[in-house]
Amino acid sequence: MADAAQVSRRLDKRPDMVVHETDPYNAEPPRGALAEAPLTALDAFYVRNHGPVPEAGAEWRVRVDGLVERPLELSVDELRERFGARREIVTLQCAGNRRAGLQEVRQIPGEAPWGPGATGTAEWTGASLADVLAAAGLEAEAGHVEFVGADTSPEADPPEPFGASIPRRKALFGEVLLAWEMNGHPLRPAHGAPLRAIVPGYIGARSVKWLRRVHARATPSENFFQARTYRLLPADADADAGLRGEGVALGAVGVNADFLTPADGSRVRAGPLEVAGYAFCGDDRHIVRVDVSSDGGRRWCQARLLDPASRWAWRRWRARVEVPVGEVELVARAWDSAAATQPDDPAQLWNPKGYVNNSWARLRLTAR
Ligand code: MTE
Q1: How far, in Å, CA of 99 to CA of 101, rounded?
Q2: Among candidates 179, 186, 61, which has minimal Cα distance to 129?
Q3: 232-256 pLDDT, tens per residue?
Q4: Beta carbon of 224 within 6 Å of any ligand 1 atom
Q5: Domain-wise residue ranges, the chain
């Protein structure tokens, strides 16, 4: 296996990325890197790939077809010229973020033990999907909009390009982008160059990279990654049985939070301690509060929410907690605008593919 730090460097990523796989490259930053700024640096942004990064030639076109009156075929320049550039600050979060917490409950074979770094926030620039669909004339029967990438994933059975779909209602939100820039720079190959979908508030899997086709359909995508995986299965389901359509296709991200600093397992001085983290939830909800406890949740103090509230982005937070001498576990939970909060125990959430672990954040420290 190639040296993980070398592969990270070659892909313009920090050499200390936590690499789960080098081929395809799957990596997350050390959690502290996400605490540094409201927008995640490009070299620290996690990468989740299901197959090899495809070649993006100058002749790249995206096709808009299916249940539309006027199919389109557009280069990135044509998209920019016809529909203009819209900028949105959006947090992407993989459905597998924090899976390691579920794997402590029970094994999840074949799935990477992602920590809390399979998430990041960037300013994305692109054309509004709603404008593109209006130009194509979305037909009334089009209930779903499918995105298809150019990468063929060997994980799919049989192998097929990565794809996903979102309901019509979501596709017509102006915020869904066909994006060509990330933090003011052209998309890098690992993040979907030259064009990707950005679906704010939905699990990262719906933000299809290396976008080749936008396909209006009556029903949700039959793609392996929509119909077979990225679905929430009941705890007693057999994930390998591979039943299409079993469970629930994941869409909007539920309320979630984790610690970013200090690092898990740190030695700290007993007394007042500054801790920091992030909190996020998707769709039409937003984060209203984050609580931190040093006594297992009997008493809580409120964290300070940082960064101006932005419709589709996380809130980073900071709190000062009193840490007693000895082995201490801090816990944190966020609340959203629908008064939903996080369950305490990952065992309540365990599912065969290890998705959407939003149990309380836990930080183990030794205080002297
Ligand atoms: N798009 C394609 N074409 N192929 C992929 O493997 N991975 C998806 C999504 N889009 C994927 C894709 C998943 S699971 C996630 S979480 C996000 O891309 C990750 O985006 P990033 O690698 O830019 O962070």
Answers
A1: 5
A2: 179
A3: 999 999 887 767 778 999 999 999 9
A4: no
A5: 31-249, 256-367
pLDDT of residue 245: 75
- 33-29-53-86 Cα dihedral, nearest 10 degrees: -30
What is the Å distance from ligand 1's center to 272 Cα? 40
Whether the Cβ atoms of residue 305 and residue 292 lie closer than 8 Å to each other: no
Per residue in 171-213, pLDDT (tens digit) is: 999 999 999 999 999 999 999 999 999 999 999 999 999 999 9
Closest atom of ligand 1 relative to the 46 alpha carbon: 24
Residues sharing a CB contact under 8 Å with residue 107, sequence separation 6 or more, in sequence order: none
pLDDT above 90 covers what percent of the chain? 94
Distances (CA, A) of 162 to 108, 127, 211, 231: 22, 21, 9, 15
Largest CA distance in the chain: 69
Neighbours of 203 (CB within 10 A): 24
CATH of 256-367 among 3.40.50.300, 2.60.40.650, 2.102.10.10, 2.40.100.10? 2.60.40.650
Q: Which CATH number fits domain 31-249: 3.40.50.1000, 3.90.420.10, 3.90.640.10, 1.25.40.10?
A: 3.90.420.10
Ligand 1 pocket member 149 (CB < 6 A):
yes
Q: What is the CA radius of gyration of the chain?
A: 21
Does any ligand 1 atom lie closer than 6 A to the CB of residue 162? yes
The pTM (predicted TM-score) of the whole model is: 0.97
